[in-house]
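Here is one such protein, fold included:

. . .
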Amino acid sequence: MQARDIPAVMSIQEESYAPEVHEEEAVVRSRLAACPQQAWVAEDAQGVCAYLFAYPSRLGQVTPLDGDFQPHAQADCLYLHDLAVASRAAGRGIAPPLVQHKLQRAGAMQLRYSALVSVQDSQGFWSRMGFKPEEKLSASQANNLASYQIPAVYMVRRIETEATKQSL
């Protein structure tokens, strides 16, 4: 993702999410600046058609809605904060390979987990990607989850690292 992609990202966010979970452009720009190597877009002939924001974090830490990304120096988890696909690209199977590639890269970085907050009935998609609901959160992290103001589920999956591949 590049700064020039932000208008398209904002447009996709607006069409993909309920108004309660729209995040301000300044927040999106801040996230791109915090972890540019973890912010990806997919493009088709019309331009950006999907995006994925992620950052290295710790298992059990939930980014609140509109919260800053705080990459952790001793990360064990790739936090997938936001994945959205433009309506014009729906049904083309863009999201799963985007996530799989991100998880493969995280494994190469020796991150053992990936986590996210599922909203808007996306739990089925994330379950098919290997994520499972995790209800054990500290009080502060449960408050972060509640910041979404709509039903939200914290989900986690283990990811295969280079070390686990070699031990198989």
